[in-house]
Amino acid sequence: SLAGPLAGLLVAGLIVRQGGLTIVDSLRDLSDAPASAHETEKLKQTCLSVSGVIAVEEIKARKSGPYLYVEATVHVDGTISASAAHRIAELTKQELLKRHNPRVANAVVDVNPLGSAGLGENSPHWARDYDYIVEEIKKAAKSVEEVVSVSEVQVYYKDNGEIASKVDIVLAHSLTIKQAHSIAVKTRRAIEKSLPGMGDIDVDLELDETDVKR
């Protein structure tokens, strides 16, 4: 009977075909083949979840073995500083690596400016223009009645996206240490109220030299 040999050939053919498909899939995974549309969409949504990212212009993910290498271009507010834009790019990269660990081995994120209508209410405070932050801090500090003047404001962008600031305020020479400390606390709270989400705020005190001469 030919039934036995034919059945054997059929089974062997199916095994060879399945083996061939497995080899093809393995070669695809080892090559620079693009990620699936579903996985690419997940990567895009991760980018959009980062504060300051307005839109994703382009995203590519290529396979290399079990890993993905991602290249993304995102849109940010065109009026923020270069330093702030760099922070958004870095945070987007970190978010891709964290959410898709260990699948994403590396990510490169570029930023392009979008529009020039100014900073919207939804823009994160840490991503605002450097000069804007300095002026807001000065205004907040000067709103404290006992502050004679603001001699210096320094702003630092941290790797985690927060803003740290150092503020030098001038106080009357006749104040006690306890009074000066209380004013420093009031100044810090005024800045936090003006710029919610600020990171470390270091308030340094200086004495009014003109007050000494009087």
From TrEMBL:
Protein name: Cation efflux protein cytoplasmic domain-containing protein
Record lineage: Eukaryota, Sar, Stramenopiles, Ochrophyta, Chrysophyceae
Source superkingdom: Eukaryota
Signal peptide limits: none
SUPFAM superfamilies, A to Z: Cation efflux protein cytoplasmic domain-like
Cation efflux protein cytoplasmic domain segment(s): 38-113, 133-204
GO molecular function: monoatomic cation transmembrane transporter activity
Segments forming a coiled coil: none
Keywords assigned by UniProt, alphabetized: Transport
A GO-annotated cellular component: membrane
InterPro entries in alphabetical order: Cation_efflux_CTD, Cation_efflux_CTD_sf, CDF_Transporter
Pfam families listed in its UniProt record: ZT_dimer
